[in-house]
Amino acid sequence: MFGNLIIYESLGSTQDIARELARQGDSEGTAILALKQTSGRGRLGRTWVSPPGKNLALSVILKPHIEPQHASLLGMAASIATAETVESYGIARAELKWPNDVLVNGRKIAGILSEAAVTSNRLEYVIVGLGLNVNCSPDDFPPDLRELVTSMAICTGQISDVEEIARVFLDKMHSLYDRVRTEGPAFIPNSWDGRWAHRKSYVIRDGIRYRAEAIAPDGALVVSTEDGTIKQLVSGTIEIVSP
């Protein structure tokens, strides 16, 4: 099912191409890899540019028969697949930051963007996009980000083949995708929890301070307020803060 990898030397956005192919009926598991991406998007519409040979920009078409409210589980599965992929290249430990960032030594090495198409309460398809810093040196990052991000090359001292990494990721994603479809919401406590970097950490969202308590079965972040009120954060950006 996975393995139809379409490689572009350069394009604007792998997400846009994958979405158009999904609308045209391309098969599940089709993946788009850009060796150079000029108009990539991260979460919340942020721009993510991929210079030639430096990063992996990949989008995969998925057509799962699951409830639309469980679509976020696919992005979380991709986070785990990414963590497993970088560890297979000699990185000792990769962790996850809610909702879909991958960290090594506390620094971001990858991010996941998932976009779902729902018609009449039916999940038509999900496009899962991966942006992974592969062969970047510190000088490739803006000065204000150098203490916040990392790459496989920085962590291992080795230059890696981007296409090979893409195929390793797709293999691991295929296995995890099967688990999402069979386990459903149980997938989160079974797989994602063990890599969660910020359990019981304090976070700020929209200026409000919370404590991160758990990941809900649907992928939401369960938090508590200072007066003990429990609520769920469904999406968005959080800032990790000291107690």
Structure description:
24% of the residues lie in helices and 33% in strands. The protein has a seven-stranded mixed sheet with strand order 1-2-5-9-8-7-6, sandwiched between helices. Strands 13-12-11-10-14 form a five-stranded antiparallel sheet, with no helix packed on it. It starts with a strand and ends with a strand. The chain contains five helices and 14 strands. It is globular. The model has no long low-confidence stretch (mean pLDDT 90). By secondary structure, the chain is of the alpha+beta class. The protein folds into two domains: 5-195, 2-Layer Sandwich (BirA Bifunctional Protein, domain 2), CATH 3.30.930; 202-241, Roll (SH3 type barrels), CATH 2.30.30.
What descriptive keywords fit this protein?
single chain, 243 residues, alpha+beta, BirA Bifunctional Protein, domain 2, SH3 type barrels, 2 domains, 7-stranded mixed beta sheet, 5-stranded antiparallel beta sheet, 5 helices, BPL_LPL_catalytic, ligase, EC 6.3.4.15, biotin--[biotin carboxyl-carrier protein] ligase
Q: State the helix count.
A: 5
User: What is the CATH H-level superfamily of the largest domain?
Assistant: Bira Bifunctional Protein, Domain 2
* Average predicted local confidence, pLDDT: 90
**Main sheet overview:** 7 strands, mixed
| Bulk shape | globular
Poorly predicted ranges (pLDDT <50, ≥5 residues)?
none
**What is the CATH level 1 assignment of the largest domain?**
Alpha Beta
Whole-angstrom Rg: 17 Å
**Name of the CATH architecture of the largest domain:** 2-Layer Sandwich
Main sheet: which strands, in order across? 1-2-5-9-8-7-6
Strand % is 25-35%
In the CATH hierarchy, the third-tier topology of the largest domain is known as: BirA Bifunctional Protein, domain 2
Whole-number total of structural domains? 2
Q: Order of SSEs, N→C?
A: EHEEEEHEEEEHHHEEEEE
- N-to-C CA distance: 46 Å
Sheet/helix structural class: alpha+beta
